[in-house]
Amino acid sequence: MKHATRILIACGLLSALAACGSRKDLALKPGQQLPPAPYGRAVQPQPTELLRTPTLAIPERSVELRTRSEEREDDPFDLPPPEDK
Questions:
Q1: How many whole angstroms separate alpha carbon 12 and alpha carbon 52?
Q2: Total-model pTM
Q3: What CA–CA distance (Å, rounded) separates 27 from 47?
Q4: What is the pLDDT of residues 5-53, one digit of tens each?
Q5: What is the 3-state secondary structure (H, E, C) of 26-68?
Q6: Which H helix or E strand runs over 18?
Q7: Which positions carry the signal peptide feature in this UniProt record (predicted)?
Q8: Backbone angles phi, psi at 3, to 5 degrees
Q9: From CA 6, how far away is CA 14, in angstroms rounded?
Protein backbone atom coordinates (compact mmCIF):
# COMPACT_ATOMS: atom_id res chain seq x y z
CA MET A 1 0.00 0.00 0.00
CA LYS A 2 2.82 2.43 0.82
CA HIS A 3 4.48 1.74 -2.52
CA ALA A 4 1.31 2.52 -4.49
CA THR A 5 0.79 5.74 -2.52
CA ARG A 6 4.33 6.89 -3.28
CA ILE A 7 3.83 6.20 -6.96
CA LEU A 8 0.58 8.21 -7.00
CA ILE A 9 2.22 11.13 -5.19
CA ALA A 10 5.21 11.06 -7.57
CA CYS A 11 2.90 11.00 -10.62
CA GLY A 12 0.90 13.90 -9.21
CA LEU A 13 4.01 15.97 -8.56
CA LEU A 14 5.42 15.25 -12.02
CA SER A 15 2.17 16.19 -13.75
CA ALA A 16 1.96 19.41 -11.70
CA LEU A 17 5.56 20.23 -12.63
CA ALA A 18 4.88 19.58 -16.32
CA ALA A 19 1.83 21.84 -16.27
CA CYS A 20 3.61 24.87 -14.81
CA GLY A 21 5.55 25.76 -17.97
CA SER A 22 4.72 29.12 -19.48
CA ARG A 23 3.85 29.47 -23.14
CA LYS A 24 4.51 32.99 -24.42
CA ASP A 25 5.72 34.46 -27.67
CA LEU A 26 9.47 34.87 -27.84
CA ALA A 27 10.66 38.41 -27.24
CA LEU A 28 13.94 40.24 -26.83
CA LYS A 29 15.10 41.13 -23.36
CA PRO A 30 15.48 44.84 -22.60
CA GLY A 31 18.69 46.11 -24.17
CA GLN A 32 19.00 43.24 -26.69
CA GLN A 33 18.91 43.78 -30.44
CA LEU A 34 18.16 41.53 -33.37
CA PRO A 35 21.14 40.31 -35.39
CA PRO A 36 22.21 42.59 -38.26
CA ALA A 37 20.52 42.28 -41.64
CA PRO A 38 22.05 39.59 -43.89
CA TYR A 39 24.46 40.72 -46.59
CA GLY A 40 22.57 42.10 -49.56
CA ARG A 41 19.32 42.68 -47.68
CA ALA A 42 18.37 46.27 -46.96
CA VAL A 43 15.72 45.56 -44.33
CA GLN A 44 16.41 43.76 -41.08
CA PRO A 45 14.20 40.62 -40.79
CA GLN A 46 11.50 40.51 -38.14
CA PRO A 47 11.64 37.88 -35.34
CA THR A 48 8.85 35.86 -36.95
CA GLU A 49 10.86 35.69 -40.19
CA LEU A 50 13.94 34.49 -38.30
CA LEU A 51 11.97 31.71 -36.62
CA ARG A 52 10.45 30.42 -39.86
CA THR A 53 12.14 27.23 -41.13
CA PRO A 54 13.70 27.68 -44.57
CA THR A 55 12.56 25.38 -47.37
CA LEU A 56 15.99 23.78 -47.66
CA ALA A 57 15.80 22.64 -44.04
CA ILE A 58 12.72 20.52 -44.79
CA PRO A 59 13.33 18.93 -48.19
CA GLU A 60 10.57 16.99 -49.86
CA ARG A 61 11.02 13.30 -50.50
CA SER A 62 12.50 12.82 -53.96
CA VAL A 63 12.64 9.01 -53.96
CA GLU A 64 9.64 7.00 -55.04
CA LEU A 65 8.61 4.38 -52.53
CA ARG A 66 8.53 0.82 -53.76
CA THR A 67 5.03 -0.56 -53.89
CA ARG A 68 5.97 -4.20 -54.50
CA SER A 69 8.99 -6.35 -53.86
CA GLU A 70 11.57 -6.45 -56.64
CA GLU A 71 14.66 -8.51 -57.28
CA ARG A 72 17.80 -6.72 -56.09
CA GLU A 73 20.47 -5.86 -58.58
CA ASP A 74 23.94 -7.33 -58.12
CA ASP A 75 26.05 -5.16 -55.81
CA PRO A 76 29.76 -5.26 -56.75
CA PHE A 77 30.72 -3.87 -53.33
CA ASP A 78 28.89 -6.60 -51.38
CA LEU A 79 31.99 -8.71 -50.72
CA PRO A 80 32.33 -11.56 -48.24
CA PRO A 81 34.45 -10.90 -45.15
CA PRO A 82 38.15 -11.76 -45.47
CA GLU A 83 39.15 -15.18 -44.27
CA ASP A 84 41.40 -15.26 -41.19
CA LYS A 85 44.48 -17.47 -41.46
A1: 36
A2: 0.33
A3: 8
A4: 888 888 888 877 776 666 777 778 899 888 888 888 888 888 788 888 8
A5: CCCCCCCCCCCCCCCCCCCCCHHHHHCCCHHHCCCCCCCCCCC
A6: helix 2-19
A7: 1-18
A8: -65, -45
A9: 12
